């Protein structure tokens, strides 16, 4: 009796081992290559968008950091030159600094002698050009952050359509493995699109914050310059 029980247990163990599912590994390369031509095109496009977003982010970040650097004594020197009537020296100092703030002040200095409202208008117009230069290509990041998830979702829809098409051609018999493979392959493009979109969104907002700080610096120094011109001699 005991031998019979042992034999039955061994047979049950063998059956369990035979029916045991083999753990399937999942790699990014396999997901990309198994997505078919449409999936690979979508992934390649998203990868290109990621490279473009990364380049624009770092290029603008370094440009904005360079624009925000300014000597703390710059405005004091400008005011001393203007007070002493050394307009040329003030212009030379602005050219040496060569920053958005110095270019605005230089524009205002070039209008000294005209009504204060005209000087203010000239500085505002120059400020718009400086802001436009600081925001160069930043809007592309906003476009990428919005378009990348939609492109990824397009790849998912295409992948699901192809999976359903394969199931329909299999004679109406639903192959769970075929359906599962098609679904996780299709979802790969959505994940890739979301990753690129999130990176683009964070990069865009970070650059906007950095740009706003430079704009505030420009406005503060411009007002300080105008206030100095408005002071009674």
Structural features, described:
With about 230 residues, the protein is mainly α. It has one domain. The protein contains nine helices and no strands. The chain has helices spanning about 1-20, 30-35, 35-70, 75-85, 85-95, 100-110, 115-135, 140-170, 175-230. The protein is rod-shaped, with a radius of gyration of 32 Å. The termini are far apart. Its main location: membrane. It is found in: Cell membrane; Membrane.
List the helices and strands and how they pair.
Blueprint: H1 2-19, H2 28-33, H3 36-68, H4 74-83, H5 87-97, H6 100-110, H7 116-134, H8 138-169, H9 176-230
Helix pairs in contact: 3-8, 3-9, 4-5, 4-9, 5-6, 6-7, 6-9, 7-9, 8-9
What are the main properties of this structure?
mainly alpha, disordered N terminus
Helix content: over 70%
- H/E element string? HHHHHHHHH
> Assembly state here?
single chain
How widely separated are the two ends? 118 Å
Instruction: Please give the number of β-strands.
Output: 0
Q: What is the average of the pLDDT values?
A: 79
Biggest pleated-sheet summary: none
Number of helices: 9
β content, as a range? under 5%
The dominant shape is rod-shaped
Low-pLDDT regions: 1-6, 12-22
Rg measurement, Å:
32 Å
Overall number of structural domains: 1
Structural class: mainly alpha
């Amino acid at each position: 009796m005991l031998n019979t029980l042992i034999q039955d247990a061994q047979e049950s163990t063998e059956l369990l081992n035979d029916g045991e599912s083999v753990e399937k590994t999942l790699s990014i390369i396999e997901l990309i290559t198994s997505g078919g031509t449409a999936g690979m095109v979508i992934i390649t496009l998203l990868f290109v968008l990621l490279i473009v977003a990364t380049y624009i982010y770092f290029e603008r970040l370094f440009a904005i950091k360079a624009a925000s650097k300014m000597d703390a004594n710059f405005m004091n020197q400008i005011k001393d030159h203007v007070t002493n009537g050394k307009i040329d020296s003030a212009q030379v100092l602005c050219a040496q600094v060569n920053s958005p703030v110095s270019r605005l002040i230089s524009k205002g200095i070039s209008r000294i002698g005209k009504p204060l409202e005209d000087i203010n208008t000239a500085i505002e117009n120059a400020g718009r050009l400086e802001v436009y230069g600081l925001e160069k290509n930043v809007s592309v990041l906003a476009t990428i952050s919005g378009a990348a998830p939609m492109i990824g979702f397009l790849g998912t829809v295409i992948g699901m359509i192809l999976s359903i098409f394969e199931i329909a051609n299999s004679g109406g018999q639903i192959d769970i493995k075929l359906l599962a493979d098609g679904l996780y392959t299709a979802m790969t493009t959505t994940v890739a699109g979301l990753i690129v979109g999130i990176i683009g969104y964070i990069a865009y907002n970070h650059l906007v914050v950095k740009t706003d700080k430079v704009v505030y610096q420009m406005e503060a120094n411009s007002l300080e310059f105008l206030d100095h011109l408005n002071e009674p001699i």
